[in-house]
Design goal:
alpha+beta; 360 residues; globular; binds ligand DP6; 8-stranded mixed β-sheet; 4-stranded antiparallel β-sheet
Length: 360
């Protein structure tokens, strides 16, 4: 599919009023997206597990405006409250996508969104939020063009979500999702995420992600700014090449059920992401002392017990602990006994691989 395939060719009737609703999960990258080109094109391919319980739930009420094609118009409530600080991001999103959803300027939208996870938790919510928005808008497109197929809806939802936040395009499908063109991954694209199309050993079917909430404060640097700092970064080119190689390695690991290889790749990716941040100009650091304390303890525990758990990090201080479901009781006991002391207010969230977006 090319960008042009997402511009509807057929005309549409303007509807009077109605509601659309979608729920979309967050995702956790195993191979990280860090660095992008104009138009939300990733500098390297990435792959993530779609999560299940950390979700955004969004309802969009649409009402026909008196004047046709009269610009983007919306109101936004987050958990029942106006959030003017989110409005510029939404405005930019609508401006970017209106070419692909030409009916948008005929409606006034009332958007109401909430998250299943505490918003002060420091968990990135832009992926689930933008995926839920995109899925709602594709439901609205379906009401204008009832003939569109589920496959097209999934692809275009991901395409639109990407224009809101890059990683959001990996929150439409479930399981393992790839975003970014890679020669060894059939159907992969810079424009949208696709379910990982090759063999996946059953060891990876039921992965758990326990998110240790280390720090909930405001981040010093947003992801968007962090991506920008990869422009002209002295290690950028090597990093992008490394991520491409890691995709090949991950493909083999997933096919062979190689848990040891998985642990090594996932942890190397997390630390490389943070190494890029620490060597940007200006440099910055999102890990906290407790992030490091947890990582060291995970390494010791893995050595002592041979349990194949590993950690990953997104753009923040929280630690995602990843492991197959058969180790759940054991790992949760370890977390309760030894890791919660490093969490803010001893808080953590138990999540697992999920099935993706839900429309209702
Ligand atoms: C570290 O998707 O939040 O989580 O495209 O600017 O919205 P924008 O960035 P965003 O970046 C996420 C970066 C990451 C790694 C990843 O999820 O792959």
């Amino acid at each position: 599919m090319t960008e042009k395939d997402f511009i509807p060719a057929v005309s549409f009737n303007i509807l009077e009023a109605g509601n659309v609703h979608a729920e979309a999960p967050s995702n956790i990258a195993l191979i990280k997206y860090w660095g992008k080109y104009p138009g939300q094109i990733p500098a390297n391919p990435s792959i993530s597990f779609t999560l299940n319980d950390c979700r955004s739930s969004t309802t969009i009420a649409y009402n026909k405006k008196d004047k046709e094609n009269s610009g983007i118009s919306f109101e936004f409530l987050f958990e029942g409250q106006a959030k003017p600080e989110f409005e510029p991001k939404l405005q930019t999103f609508f401006e970017r996508i209106k070419k692909y959803l030409p009916f948008l300027e005929n409606y006034h939208f009332k958007i109401a969104s909430s998250n299943s996870f505490p918003h002060s938790s420091g968990i990135a919510s832009s992926a689930s939020a933008m995926a839920a928005m995109a899925a709602c808008l594709m439901e609205l497109e379906k009401r204008h063009h009832p003939g569109i197929t589920p496959e097209y809806i999934a692809m275009k939802s991901s395409f639109l979500a990407r224009l809101g936040s890059g990683s959001a395009c990996r929150s439409i499908a479930g399981g393992l999702v790839v975003w970014g063109l890679h020669e060894a991954i059939n159907g992969s694209s810079d424009l949208y995420g696709v379910p990982f199309p090759a063999a996946i050993d059953e060891a990876f079917q039921d992965y758990q992600d326990t998110i240790l909430l280390v720090h909930s404060g405001q981040k010093q640097i947003s992801s968007t700014l962090g991506h920008k700092l990869m422009d002209g970064h002295p290690f950028a080119q090597n990093r992008f090449e490394q991520a491409n190689r890691h995709m090949n390695e991950m493909k083999a690991v997933l096919a062979n059920g190689d848990l040891e290889g998985f642990v090594k790749l996932v942890e190397l990716e997390a630390l490389t992401l943070h190494a890029m941040m620490m060597s940007s100009s200006p440099y910055f650091m999102l890990m906290k002392p407790n992030t490091l304390a947890i990582i060291e303890r995970i390494w010791e525990y893995r050595k002592e017990t041979q349990v194949p758990l590993c950690f990953t990090l997104d753009a923040g201080a929280n630690v995602h602990v990843l492991y197959p479901a058969i180790y759940k009781d054991k790992v949760l006991q370890f977390i309760k006994n030894e890791l919660v002391v490093y969490c803010e207010n001893e808080k953590y969230i138990c999540d697992q691989v999920g099935t993706g977006v839900k429309i209702s």
